[in-house]
Structures are given as C-alpha cells and as structure tokens.
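Much of our argument rests on the idea that a fold can be written as discrete symbols. This step matters because it turns folding into a mapping between discrete strings. The record that follows shows the chain in one-letter code together with its fold in token form.
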Amino acid sequence: MQEGINIFEQDFWSINDAINRLLQGTHAKIVLLIDREGQMITSTGDTSRIDTSSFATLSAADFAATSQLASLIGEREFSTLFHQGEKENLYVSLVANRIILAVIFDNRTTLGLVRVKTRTTVAELEKTFRMLFSKVQQGAVARKEIDADFGRIAEKEIDRLFGG
C-alpha cells in the first residue's frame, strides 16, 4: 500500500498551472489529478456537477481493473484510457506511475487535441512529481536519522535519570 501524496506549496502551484493550461488548451470541461489510491489531489474546471470524491475513487478502481486486463494480455500496463460517451468523453493518463490525470471533455474539442496536449502536460507533471517524490524521500531519510538520534539520546537520558 502506498503512502498518500505529500505536496509542497510551490509544487502544488506548478501542478495547478500545468492542469489549468491543459484545461484552457483543450477547451476541456474538467481536469482532475487523482492518486492511484483514489484520493483527489487537485482539479480545475467546473466540478460543481460531479461528486469529485466518488469520481476519484472510481477512476482509481477503473485504472486498477484496466491494469489487470493489460496483465492478462501480456502488457505491463496501459498508460492511457479513453471512454467515449454521447455528450462527454473521458481521457485518462498515468503520470509517474502513481498519479491519474483525468480530462473530461465534450464536442467543443477533439480526442486528437486532448491526446497531444495531455502528452505534453504529462511530461511536465512527471518532472514535477519525480522531483517532489525525491524531496519527500530525502525528508523521510532525514526523519529516520533524527528519530534514531533522538532514540539514542532519550535512552541515555532515561538511564542517567534512573541510574542505569
């Protein structure tokens, strides 16, 4: 089980800028970023008509099911999914193997434009998330070192206080 995604403020704004550019560049209705556990990270566009929590959970489940289908036919994973509806479509792409980028769009745009613009945005987001994951990993290592030092110091102090 993965830990939740921790995002620093500067990275958050960089991520939001990228998905806002995608929304505007494709004339999509909504763009959402979701972790693979089904937690909403951020979104842009008019989300007032959808339950974003349910959407995030179902998107993660959809990606997980599709990953199993890929496995059954000998693929490691499908990095993109497309669902076509009568009025609205959903294009989903995997970012840095941990994040789901979902683009909801209608007939004001084309699948081709959404694919091209999404590919560019995914490349940008992958750089941001890889740097973010690296910062978080470095912080975790530093916390372990601090925790170990604290434990040693605390043991010595307890021994000193109780004559050990």
Remarks:
- The CA atoms of residues 30 and 48 lie 10 Å apart.
- The chain has one domain: 9-161.
